[in-house]
Every structure is written in structure tokens, then in C-alpha cells.
Amino acid sequence: MVQFEANKGAIGKAYKKDAKLAMEYLAVCDECFITEQEMLLNSSGEFTIETEGKTFKLTKDMVSVKRFQKTLHVEEVVPNVIEPSFGIGRIMYSIFEHTFQVREGDEQRTLPYHAEAMTKQGVSHKVDDSSGSIGRRYARTDEIGVAFGITIDFDTVNKTPHTATLRDRDSMRQIRAEVSELPGIIRDLANGVMTWSEVESKYPIFEGQETSKKDTTEE
Predict the structure, then answer these.
(1) Any idea which of 37-46, 118-127, 201-210 has the lowest mean pLDDT?
(2) Is 99 part of a structural domain of the chain?
(3) Please, which pLDDT band fits residue 102 given cuts at 50, 70 and 90?
(4) CA distance 64 to 41
(5) Least crowded by CB within 10 Å, which of 17, 115, 146, 209?
């Protein structure tokens, strides 16, 4: 370490009551400043400092430079970095917005007919295009409380008019109706206008598919 070593007696004799200002200034000087003033002190025998509007001329008999090593057992550091705290949600939103992109041709993509029709009827729905057997999909939707399920099968594709099955969660029974009628049926069931028993009396009970994937391939 490098610091000024002031001769309090000599400085006090020269500057009287202002001597305290000079000694306080010398106590807080950094190593670079001390080295520069040491060179002046060695070459000309004096150097000048200014503090609080007063000028002090210091000579070799008033101040010297002391170099020594000091062991620090505890060092207090005041951080100069601001670390704001906020939740993970804002970070995720920023990542999503930063990585969002629209692929070429996305504007031409449309919902399947039955999903689009459900939207127009104001019926809340979700298209399940996940892998797995139809039985597993039924079980999964039953667990989360989905009341009705529409299934598009090979008969829907191969036969006209195009029909699909509608399944009731509570009874686990299914009927087959034209695709265009299904959104209205579900809307009436959800609003309590029609009961499932009335639906079964009006539409044929689904027993099984009449066509298969092989029939579709051959066509």
C-alpha cells in the first residue's frame, strides 16, 4: 500500500487551524496521485494541493510517502451492480415474444370443418390429434370432465353424406349424425335444450365402423 505520512507538527505550525483540512485531504489520496506528488517532492522538494477553496504548499519536512504491505482479514465491498428482482413469468413472455415467428403459408391454414363450425356456434372445444388409441383418448377426456366428444373415423371420409360419432361422457354411448348437425346438437345439450335420451331417440346408435383404412386406400 502507498499513503502520505503527514508531519502534524510541521503542518500545524505552518497552517494553524487550516492544518486539519490538509491532513484530511492527504489521508484520502489514491496511489496514482501519491506517486505523482512523490516525484514532484523528490525533484523540487515541494508540491501543492487544493481543498475547499484553500491552497497548501507542502514540503519534505511536512509530508513523506510511506509504502508498506497490509494484511486484510475482512474487506467490505459496496456492490455497484443493480440486481432487479422479478418473477419468471416476465422472462418467459419475453422469450416467447422474441422467438415468435409466422411461417410462410400460415395465413392459409384453417380449422377442420367441424372445429370451425363449433366455433361459429359458440361451443368451447379442443381438437385432440395426439397419438394413442381412441379408447385412451376417451379415458383422458373423461378424466378432465369433457362432456361430449366427436370422433372423425373412416366412415366420415368414405361415405356420403359425411357423418361422425358423438359420444356422451356419462353413459359412454355414441350416436352417428351428419357432421353439419353435430355443432347444433352439442350446443343444445350444453344449454339444456335437449337431453341425451332425446338425442338417442332421434339419431342412430353407433355400433361400429362399416369401412376401414383399407377401403380408403383402395379408393
Answers:
(1) 118-127
(2) no
(3) low
(4) 8
(5) 17
- Show the domain range for 8: 2-67
pTM above 0.70, yes or no: no
Domain membership flag for residue 96:
no
Helix (H) / strand (E) element for 202: namely helix 196-202
Per-residue pLDDT at 174: 93
Specify the residue for cell string 397419438: 131
| Count of structural domains, the chain | 2
Of 67, 97, 116, at which residue does a domain stop?
67
Q: For all residues of the chain together, what is the average pLDDT? A: 82
Q: Which of 67, 82, 113 is the last residue of a domain?
A: 67
CATH of the domain at 163: 3.40.50.800
User: Is residue 176 included in any domain, yes or no?
Assistant: yes
DSSP per-residue codes, 18-78: GHHHHHHHHHT--HHHHHHHHHHHHHHSEEEEEETTEEEEEETTTEEEEE-----S-----
**Rounded distance, CA 132 to CA 141, Å?**
13
